[in-house]
Amino acid sequence: MTELHTRTGSAATADVDAVVIGTLPARTNGANGGDDGDRTAPPRLAAGAAAVDAAFDGDVATLLAVAGATGRADEVVKVPTRGTLAAPLLVAVGLGKANGDDGEPSTEQLRRASGTAARALAGTGHAVTTLSWPGTDAAVATAEGTLLGAYTFTAYKKSEDRAPVGRVDLATDDPGAEQAVRRAAAVAQAVRTARDLVNTPPNDLYPASFAERAAALGEAAGLEVEVLDDAALAEGGYGGVLGVGSGSSRPPRLVRLRWSGGSAPRAAVALVGKGITFDTGGISIKPAANMDHMTSDMAGAAAVIATTVLAAELDLPVRVTATVPMAENMPSATAYRPADVLRMYGGKTVEVLNTDAEGRLILADAIVRAAEDEPDYLIETSTLTGAQIVALGTRTAGVMGSEVFRDRVAVLGREVGEDAWTMPLPDHIRSELDSRVADLANVTGSRNAGMLAAGVFLREFVPNGLHWAHIDIAGPSFHTGGPYGYTTKGGTGVPVRTLAAVLADIAENG
Ligand code: BES
Ligand code: MN
Ligand code: ZN
User: Fold this and answer.
1) Is 181 among the domain residues?
2) Do residues 211 and 263 share a domain?
3) Domain CATH number, residue 83
4) How far is the CA of 279 from the centre of ligand 2 (A)?
5) Based on the domain organization, do 270 and 406 belong to the same domain?
């Protein structure tokens, strides 16, 4: 894995293989005119590029423009330095138009450009980046972006095309940056863990093996670990998890991980994540096209596991208990079927009208179990509905729940660069879930507001008065297009950074 260090010396004289600087589009008249800047003028240089520019006698922007640099986001221009710098290669990465009033790039722009740079540096041994200069926030953003952009998943490849960049030194003027960078590296590592779990194919990641991996990660971090197998689930009355898992030859599990919160925890937080290791739809089977995407239907579980481990590693003063239901949704002679009635953990009954609305069934069990611990907050996250993608697209999570807490979660998500938007849970939708035979049905009779209907279903299992949030990550947790910024193909690790930010905020403010 890519090594990170901080350094205070000039990048111009660093004895490394490459130096990274940032570029921004030239200002047009009225800097916020909505265009990409003046494409004929040379790009502006980011703050950290000063020493490099001085070594080039102030000509670096002009030189880069000759090579086609415009400063647009995701642009990479490489220039051999021919002795001008100690390093043989200069890598100029575009930050994109700065939309802030000060004309400075946002932390997310720095994070993304760092990810783009890290990808462009694949095959390089040792680089210095100046995107991290000046100040702690820039160093943190650069650390995160670098480690996430350098991520590769090669467990199933004979050989790697080009190894990720070996080592990146973050130029900084801040002696305190080192500690902040260590924390950022731990957060990035948690994101990478979640990506690894999502990227592991479903023939190798099924409920039992997923539970083993979660337990191993938890034990290594000193967490309390409990795994309920199918016999224990039957004994405990977990009808949702058992029903959904009944079609698979690989029986379901429920994993519980607990970080104590140290000696004086400020609050108790329950995390719940959907762990469908593959979703065929079951008897209500999905069309074949793009069904492979359903290897990522355990992204919520992956994020919750990785975040709980992270809380222990950061020694956060918050008690965190993860409750993670795991099942494979398969059609078979033993599968649950439309018209079945399941008795959920806690006693509510649900009429199954569509076996492809399975996530909410395993989550209902897990939410009721998690709430038994009487946490102060409950956050559940899941690849719950295709309707999330219809409403918000592939990069913005939908956040529902109790009003104040769900808004807090959505704001924190946006702050860390995991886009999120609050969605309502209209009361009138509840009656659309009325069932002929059971307490409620698992789907409504229409496609309208599918994301909200799923949230309204989950709300039925959350105790009154508990602060809770449901984060639908169907789109943002899995990236099917080409890489951009620090987002690589496949599992993205969303919403680990949001969850980490919420836990840190609760540690600080209760
Ligand atoms: N896992 C899917 C949701 C999903 C769809 C995630 C696309 C990622 C990408 C979920 O289990 C599902 O099948 N939901 C159904 C619900 C419907 C039957 C009410 C859906 O969205 O179509
Ligand atoms: Mn489904
Ligand atoms: Zn699903």
Assistant:
1) no
2) yes
3) 3.40.220.10
4) 6
5) yes
Q: How many helices (H) and strands (E) does the chain have?
A: 14, 21
- Single out the residue of 211, 452, 220 nearest to residue 326, CA to CA: 211
Beta-bridged to residue 468, according to DSSP, are 378
Structural domain for 126, as ranges: 3-173
Tell me if 297 CB under 6 Å of ligand 1.
yes
> Which positions of the chain have pLDDT values less than 70?
29-39
Instruction: Tell which residue, 330, 274, 343, has the closest CA to residue 302.
Output: 274
pLDDT of residue 24: 97
pTM of the model: 0.97
pLDDT digits (tens, 9 = 90+) for 391-420: 999 999 999 999 999 999 999 999 999 999
Please say if 360 is a catalytic residue.
yes
CB 385 near ligand 1, within 6 Å: yes
* Domain identity same for 437 and 332: yes
Q: Is the distance from CB of 225 to CB of 259 less than 8 angstroms?
A: no
State the pLDDT at residue 38. Answer: 60
List 286, 337, 414, 489, catalytic entry: 286
pLDDT of amino acid 160: 72
223 touches 185 (CB < 8 A): no
Chain position carrying tokens 């080192």: 178
- Residue 217 shares a structural domain with residue 136: no
% of the chain exceeding 70 in pLDDT: 98
- The whole-angstrom separation of Cα 164 and Cα 148 is 11
Ligand 1 pocket member 386 (CB < 6 A): yes
Q: Which of 173, 207, 222 corresponds to the end of one domain?
A: 173
Q: How far apart are CA 33 and CA 39, in angstroms?
A: 13
* pLDDT mean across residues, the chain: 97
